[in-house]
UniProtKB/TrEMBL annotation, chains A, B:
It is an enzyme of class 6 (ligase). It comes from the Eukaryota. Pfam families: FTHFS. It comes from Cyanidium caldarium. GO terms for molecular function: ATP binding; formate-tetrahydrofolate ligase activity. Keywords: ATP-binding, Ligase, Nucleotide-binding, One-carbon metabolism. GO terms for biological process: one-carbon metabolic process. This is formate--tetrahydrofolate ligase. Pathway: One-carbon metabolism; tetrahydrofolate interconversion. Its EC number is 6.3.4.3.
Length: 614, 614
């Protein structure tokens, strides 16, 4: 591959956007060619972004997979501990400095928060994905496709309820069958056990069953989405215009990345698999029968697939040192699994080949992101991590250790437990201690020693933020050693899918969070039973829990043990294929502060250069 | 240019999507090179779409402009009379058959209706823009960018009102000035006449004036938008979640193309012009003072520009016969001017050069689309049409003539008046009679004769739908003759901008619609006065009126004269730069029928081919 080391490093480290704009990106077709992507597999989106066609997987079907390395972290502070930065910096070290074949797979960030509080998510300092403006904004439109698809599904649901409420069985059936049964209608006929192909052949009872979804409004599971920090859309009442004749309903918007369609994009393995998953999305239950009503039943799943046809292709970008990056899918870590796409990982593993490395990031701390990476993503992808990198900062350890215990206590509690958790899965855990300017060598070495004492494969200080790939060479070497161990530990899941949903939640709560007990609210109990009875009992679990503590209480640092984990509610992502219990309340669309980031974001009209983005 | 005639024509004409998928598109970089676009000016979006950089206008600043030909139509039926088809077919005729340099500029269609009732808008039959799926779906994301920008503006407005309602002057000012005054804040300071650069320097009174926009909720002019046919969003109540503490408000969504930002995209002439226009959008009036509150005042206009940075570049596609097409901007003809972008026209005129032709389509009938093309778009662009093509069908003339008068009466009333109207502007009018399968030669020739008798420059039968460019060669020849007349008529506007708003409305109503009188509702009167008093009196007028009649009553066919045009309300697009009177009620977001088009749209998962789109 044709990487290039950074030419010039400034101190103190300049602003992210200034560093990002100071390096001219390589033409993306050159990055692609160096990574082994054929030009017929590439769809350019401007000079610095491209989509890669899935046919690459067919061409490389027999190629050996590279080593998959997952980057995770300890329980973070509100500032984040630099997982993305480490993922990118390690990639630069492996590629541009250690001469290895390497690919980095990261999540696409939500666009809305760029204009609110949070800065971008392209890494930081001298470890970034570039161009960072394009990374943080539209990219190639995947988030927009999800918004369009999700909202078509929601519109189809409300329109269908309206038409059912205002038309007789006969009129409804007549209008639905104005044209011959379409592909998706035949799916509904099959589900109903009606083996007829002509609309006229159905009996009145069959017509009624076909045409009346009879959706129970209290069970509706679909909300609309927008990729905007719009707090006033959290709770809304729709249908208030006269044309809707009083058919009002209370609902709300989530941020786009919280859409189930995003989780589907992240977990799907092919176009036909995506088609099936989209069709299986459960939008509500039928009144009386409790039968799940799906996107297939609404007749909209083919159209959703068409809207998502391009989004399924991973997006190719590059790091500051020219190593290739797939940016693909960014499911909301609060209510979904928070991992980038299965397809990007699979393609990258083939592209780097048997000796190469693929780095992929798992959102939040290892109690959430890494656990879901294994139990949900690895199950969907069939891939196995060769090693995990646990990102640690002194700042976070200090918080966990508290005013009395300090860094050492934080390391011995929070970090040690994350190391232990990772090792439960049979995955070697390498601690990457992200160096900050004021960190002392002594404190850093103490933490490394604690990490090794608690079972870390190795622990190294990394300085990629201020130095680029050169600052993460020691980390790269540790990763390479771990991946090439002659006798690696045996990888394992902590629960089998055959276990019932309740027990699976218990396993995660006890083994990973270390709760002494789990309680289920009556609503949660009821839904779990319903899921089991409708055939969703074999899905994995995706707990929606705060990232700021092993427990459900964000104020409990360190390694709490004496808590009871309360499951307030559970939800189903039948298309993405997981059940997600809610622990506490989860905000699914952020708001704007009094001075949002947008005040500082502007465009130099002469150069077209974006200013003020961070 | 390297065009290629269609190889095979089938009869009867196959479905649009089958024709579209039967022709392999040329690589878009070849189309670009043939059209004279430098590779450094091209940003590919996959193999068949590209954006063209505005720097092309600098390179070709001194090149002569080609002939600008605007395609318009008579008052249409509900099926449409084929303006897009004619625009595309004429392009194929001029380029692939008559050997001329030609460029076609069309609007980007709304994505939402593709899944509702309406079919695509890429032309039809053997006169289409391809790939038609990409034309009708995401294209290069311009509509998505508008959705994002419009909704960021709306979120900023509601969030600001919330923060003002829940914070003291002091707290508000302190939070707003946590960071130094940004570029956009300095605009507000300048507007308020405060000549200070440090936050601490402002007096308490100046701080209050700076921080309190004090928006009058009854005057809010911004609605949210989505590109989805979602009738339940027409009227909504926002702010119903507990976190918004009871600050509820009734509002609604429009379809994305109805956003003022779309109209701005269509009328802007450069990146810096777009920045200024976005900043000038009036979102509401201040309580008490009635001062217009703008996107600049909200501090969000720089961010809006950043979101629209790529959307400003026209999108290059091709016709079935390989002639180049710009697809750029599609302002909702119901409430905006319904014309494609000024930038696409300007670039195309330079690219074809002095002897070439640029075809551009104006939405709706000539009473609306052509009038706005001249008074709004030509004012913004500075371009002048050399000729207008008036699209006519026997079907529409029959409707206008009624059961007794028939086609001839329809031609002598509706068509004749449109010809007369076009000629009022000093533009030669060529009638293109769109041939349908069952049309008789006799009827067609009758209409041609009537057209010539009523002042048409020429009238020809066109059969591009069934024959491609070969079917529109006679039309192409008529257009070429008209554009090369040695003594062309003098182009003129029907009203000067200096005229007051009321009088401008009167001119359009009397000269174009032929109303005998215009009435203004009190609300309309009040607003017109407010606009005049705030400096918006010099804007052009964009009447929002039904397209199905010269009058405001869609049931009045032919050429009515004895009607009073009632102006119910008026609105302001200060960024797009027009005032739009509302005649009757305008639906700004469509709904889904009982069997929407999405039932038939699906994806062949094996080939990835889209099926069922029309």
């Amino acid at each position: 591959m044709t990487f290039r080391k950074l030419k010039k490093i400034e101190r103190p480290t300049p602003a992210d956007i200034d560093i990002a704009q100071s390096v001219a990106p390589l033409p993306i077709d050159e990055v692609a060619a160096a990574a082994g992507i054929a030009s017929s597999e590439l769809e350019l989106y401007g000079p610095h972004k491209a989509k890669v066609r899935l046919q690459l997987l067919e061409r490389l079907a027999d190629a050996p997979d590279g080593h998959l390395v997952v980057v995770t972290g300890i329980t973070p502070t509100r500032f984040g501990e630099g997982k993305s930065t480490t993922t990118v910096g390690l990639s630069q070290a492996l590629g541009a400095h250690a001469g290895q074949r390497v690919f980095t797979c990261v999540r696409q960030p939500s666009q809305g928060p760029t204009f609110g509080i949070k800065g971008g998510a392209a890494g930081g300092g001298y470890a970034q994905v570039i161009p960072m403006e394009e990374f943080n904004l539209h990219l190639t439109g995947d988030l927009h496709a999800i918004t369009a698809a999700n909202n078509l599904l929601a519109a189809a649901l409300d329109a269908r309820m309206f038409h059912e409420a205002t038309q007789s069985d006969e009129a409804l059936y007549r209008r639905l069958t104005e044209k011959p049964f379409s592909l998706v209608m035949r799916r509904r006929l099959a589900k109903l056990g009606i083996d007829k192909t002509e609309a006229v052949a159905l009996s009145p009872e069959e017509r009624r069953r076909f045409a009346r979804l009879d959706i129970d409004p209290d069970t509706i599971a679909v909300r609309r989405v927008l990729d905007v920090n719009d707090r006033f859309l959290r709770g809304i009442r729709v249908g208030m215009a006269e044309t809707e004749r009083g058919h009002q309903r209370d609902t709300g918007f989530d941020i786009t990345v919280a859409s189930e369609i995003m989780a589907i994009l992240a977990l799907t393995t092919s176009l036909s698999d995506m088609r099936e998953r989209l069709g299986r999305i459960v939008v509500a239950a039928q009144r009386g029968t409790g039968e799940p009503i799906t996107a297939d039943d609404l007749g909209v799943s083919g159209a959703l697939t068409v809207l998502m046809r391009d989004a399924i292709m991973p997006n190719l970008m590059q790091t500051l040192e020219g190593t290739p990056v797939f940016v693909h899918a960014g499911p909301f870590a609060n209510i979904a699994h928070g991992n980038s796409s299965v397809l990007a990982d699979r393609m990258a593993l083939k592209l780097v080949g048997g000796d190469g490395y693929v780095l992929t990031e798992a959102g939040f701390g290892a109690d959430i992101g890494f656990e879901k990476f294994v139990h949900i993503k690895c199950r969907a992808s069939g891939c196995r991590p060769a090693a995990a990198v646990l990102v640690v900062t002194l700042r976070a350890l200090e918080m966990h250790g508290g005013p009395e215990g300090g860094v050492r206590a934080g390391a011995e509690s929070n970090m040690a437990r994350h190391i232990e958790n990772v090792r439960k899965f049979g995955v070697p855990c390498i601690v990457a201690l992200n160096r900050f300017r004021d960190d002392t060598d002594e404190a850093l070495q103490t933490v490394c020693a604690v990490a090794r004492a608690h079972g870390a494969y190795d622990a190294v200080v990394a300085a990629h933020f201020g130095e680029g790939g050169a600052g993460a060479v020691a980390l790269a070497e540790a990763v390479m050693r771990a991946c090439n161990e002659p006798h690696p530990p045996a990888f394992r899941m902590l629960y089998p899918l055959a276990m019932n949903l309740r027990d699976k939640v218990q396993v995660i709560a006890r083994e990973i969070y270390r709760a002494k007990e789990v309680t289920f609210a009556p609503e949660a109990e009821r839904k779990l039973e319903w899921y089991e009875s409708r055939g969703y009992g074999r899905l994995p679990i995706c707990v929606a829990k705060t990232q700021y503590s092993f427990s459900h209480d964000p104020a409990r640092f360190g390694a709490p043990t004496d808590f009871v984990l309360p499951i307030r509610d559970v939800r189903l992502s039948a298309g993405a294929e997981f059940v997600y219990p809610l622990v506490g309340s989860i905000q699914t669309i952020p708001g704007l502060p009094t001075r949002p980031a947008f005040y500082d974001i502007d465009l130099d009209p002469m150069s077209g250069r974006i200013v003020g983005m961070s």
